[in-house]
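Record pair follows.
FIRST:
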Amino acid sequence: DDTKTAPVLGLRWRFFKRHTLRADYFELDRSGAGFSPANVSVCPDGECIELPVDWPVNSFVDVQVFNLGYEYSIQFAEKLNWGVGIGLSAQDFEIGILTEDPLEPGEKIDSKSSFTAPLPTLATVFNYAITDKWILNLGLNWLEVNADLGDTDKIDGRILAYNVGVQWKAFQNVGFTLA
C-alpha cells in the first residue's frame, strides 16, 4: 500500500486584521524495495561501489518538516479571506540504501546520509465561512530547489502541496481542521 496518513500539527495567529503568522510540523517516513533502473554509485565510508542495472535495493527516506510563514490577506471580509504568503521550511532528511555488495557476495552495503535543508516557500490561501462555526479552507504551497553542490552533485526538486479542508471553530480562537 503506497498511501499513508501523516498528521500535521499547525498553529495560526492573526495578529492584525490582514496579517497572520503560521507554524506547521509533520513527519514523513517512506521505504521501499526494488531494482536499480540504472547504474548507481553508493559510497559507504567514503569508498564508492557501483551497483549494476537491475540490482536489488532497499531504500528509505525519512523527513521531519517544520514550516514558519507569514500570510497577508489581499481580500478580507466577514465570510471570505484570500491571501498570499512567504515562509521558511526547515527539512531534516535521512536517506539510505541497503543492498548486497556485487563485488563481495554475502557482504551488505548499508549507506545512510542525513542533512538539514532550510528552504524558502510561497503560498496562497482561501477561506470561506460556510457558517459561524464551519470554514472551508483551500491552500497551495510551493517550494523549489535547484542547487549545484560541486562538479558532479546537483539537487533539483519541486513540491506542490494542495490543501482542501473543513475547519470547525470549536471556541473563540480555537479550531480543528480535517484536510
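SECOND:
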Amino acid sequence: AGSGDFRMTDQPFTMEAWIKWSRNSWSGTWEVISCLGGGYYSDGGIWWAILRTDENGGSTTFYISHAGGYHVIARDIDIGALTGEWHHFAVTKSSKDDGHVVRMWMDGVKIGENAVDFVDKSFGGGAKGYIGLEHATFHTVGYYYPNCWMQDFRCYKGVEKYTIDFTPSSTSILGSSRN
C-alpha cells in the first residue's frame, strides 16, 4: 500500500482487528500486528506491535511507534490467558489538538493509554504497508510477524472511532460468527 493515504500526520486514526493469539510458535522478538505506510518504524512506518516477556505471554507489552521511537500503550497484559480464543483489539489516536493520546482497547475495554508527541511528517510514510508483518529496509534478517490469527483488520484515517468503552460486534465482516 505505498500510498500517501497512510500519512496519518496530526489527525486521529483507528486500527482494529480480531486476534486469536498462539503460544505454540513464540518468536521471542517483536510481533508486528500492522505496519502501515513504511517498513521499520524509523522508515516512517506506523508500528502496532507487541513484545512478550516469556513464551507464555504472561506479561506482554503493546507498543505504537513512529520515526521518533517506541511508545508503550498497554503493559502487563496476559495474552497467554487469551490463546485459542478470538478477542477484539483496537488502537486509537486523538488529533494533535487533543494531545495525540493513543489508547489501547481489548474487547471494548480500555487497557492503556499514552500521550505521544508525534512529529507530523514522521508518522506514516509512503512505502508499502503490511498487515501482520514488517520488513525493515536496513536489514535482511526478515520479517517481524505476530504469532496469531487475525480477522477483520480495519484502519480508519481521520477517525478516532472509540473514546469510551464499547461492545465490539461479534459478527465478522464476512457476515458469519467467529466462534
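COMMENT: The two ends are 30 Å apart (CA to CA).
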